[in-house]
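We store chain and fold; example below:
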Amino acid sequence: MIDDQGQNIGVIKTSEALDMAYDKNLDLVVVSPDQNPPVAKILDYGKYKFETDKRAKDAKKRQHTPDVKEIKMRYKIDVHDYNVKLKNIKKFLAAGNKVKIVIMLRGREIQHKQLAFNLMNRINKDMEEENFITEKRASMEGRSAIMIYAPASA
C-alpha cells in the first residue's frame, strides 16, 4: 500500500488500509490489481479519475490517424490546374495522409483509357523525388482510373 504522501507502507490488511483512508477523508484505490499483492493507494478518487481522463484525452489528441484524401481530375487537365493538383498531392502526403488520385472518364472518353494512364505516368514521374509508397498502382475501376499513394513513414 502507498499512502497519500507517496510513501510505501508495505503489505497491510484491507480493513487497516480503509481505516487509514477514512481517517484522512480520502479513498482507497487499487492502482495495480494485476500484481501480487495488488497495489492500493490512498488518494482523492475524483481527482485521480480527472487526471487519468485528462491524460487519455491528451494521448488521443496527439494520435494521428491518416485520412484518405481524394484528388479528382480529367485527362484533359490544363498545365496550371495540373500543377495545383500535384502541389496538393505533395501537401497531403507531407501531412501523413493517403492520397487517392481519380481520373474520371465521361461518355465516349472511356475509349481513351490510355490517355488517363499517360497522365498517371506523368504524375508518377513528377513525384519521383517525393517520399511516398504506391499503395495501389494505376488501374481502371468502372469509368475512372485510380491510383493510391501513401506516405513512406506510415
